[in-house]
Amino acid sequence: MSKSKEYDVTPALAVKWLEKNKKNRGISGARVERYARDMKAGAWEFNGEPLIFAGDMEQLLDGQHRLEAVKVAMTTVRMLVVCGIDAKTFKTVNSGGARTFADVLGMEGFSSPGNLAAASMHLFHYRKSGGRVFSQAAKLPTKDELFAIIKDESGLAESVAHVASQKTPFVTTSLLSACHHLFSKADRSDRAKADEFVAALKTGEGLGTPNPVYLLRERLMASRMTLAAKLDNRVVPYLVVRAWNAWKSKERIKRLSLPKGVNESPGGKARVTIPDIPAIL
After folding, report:
1. Is 183 helix (H, G, I), strand (E, B) or coil?
2. What is the mean pLDDT of residues 251-274?
3. CB 51 within 8 A of CB 82
4. Sequence-ordered list of residues with C-beta below 8 angstroms from that of 179, at least 6 positions apart, any chain
5. Is the predicted pLDDT of residue 240 greater than 60, yes or no?
6. What gap in Å lies between CA 154 and CA 175, rounded to an integer?
7. What is the DSSP letter of 146?
């Protein structure tokens, strides 16, 4: 018969229970780091999701990442523990689909939750990198960290709604939404300018060859349509911000180029170095 009990799990207790982790999957260091950051920040909430043991606390079936995070965070966390489960049921534990951040945003009533989730991740990396990049594979944010971004970055949801309504097919809604939001915040009077930039990028109406938005539009369209002109998605933020800066400052440019060290040769991919995003004007 199974039984459950709440425990204050200390680092020492986590170490003891991890000794019973006999046949579990491999540890994801990135997941442990995310959990530990929330625990250190006091953002880890008791939600009733249990640690699961077979028999009388004989084998850990589920919860290894949470216990490893307690060790890393060096803090005590309240957890529910269920024991008395048949070890043969291990293959069925945690087999449901994980609830994504987009799922949570949808449940909270946000519109376009998938795009908002992705845009908040772009901004998380942008802020954490000091405004250098929109993505860092080595550091994935937690849901609480992304919620903090949406709370702190007032107007992000509005930027996502506006850009999503424009349906610009050759750049992702999440990336362009993050850019629109940053352009709007660069100067409080820039919301109308940011709207104008996105509209011009979508339609191309009234744009001449020297116009930076025209050059960006042509570059992004070619990337979508021709393998030889394909761009690495990680360099696109540089091009969008470079075009914005030139367009806003009325700088006349003949070509929208990536910095040296990024491969632009026909038939190649931009894969050598991901350029730092320019400071936004």
Report:
1. helix
2. 67
3. yes
4. 237, 240, 241, 244
5. yes
6. 17
7. H
Residue type, 36: A
Instruction: Give the DSSP letter of residue 240.
Output: H
| DSSP run (H or E) holding 78 | strand 77-85
How far CA 262 is from CA of 64, 84, 239, 276, in Å, comes to 41, 57, 12, 11
3-state secondary structure of 54: strand
Task: Using alpha carbons, list the distances in angstroms from residue 82 to 1, 139, 218.
Answer: 11, 32, 58
Q: Which residues contact residue 13 at a Cβ distance below 8 angstroms, ignoring those fewer than 6 apart? A: 7
Task: In whole angstroms, give the CA distance from residue 238 to residue 131.
Answer: 11
Residue 96: the pLDDT is 53
Return the DSSP state at 131: S
* Pick from 55, 57, 58, 68: nearest CA to 25: 68
Distance CA 54, CA 145 (A): 33
Residue 119, both tokens? 């845009």
What are the tokens at 185?
A: 């915040």
pTM over 0.90: no
209's tokens: 């060859």
Task: Count how many Cα atoms sit within 13 Å of the Cα of residue 12 in the half-sphere of its side chain.
Answer: 0
Q: Is 12 helix (H, G, I), strand (E, B) or coil?
A: helix
> Which amino acid is located at 57 in the chain?
M
Edge-to-edge strands, sheet with 50-54 = 3-9, 77-85, 50-54, 59-62
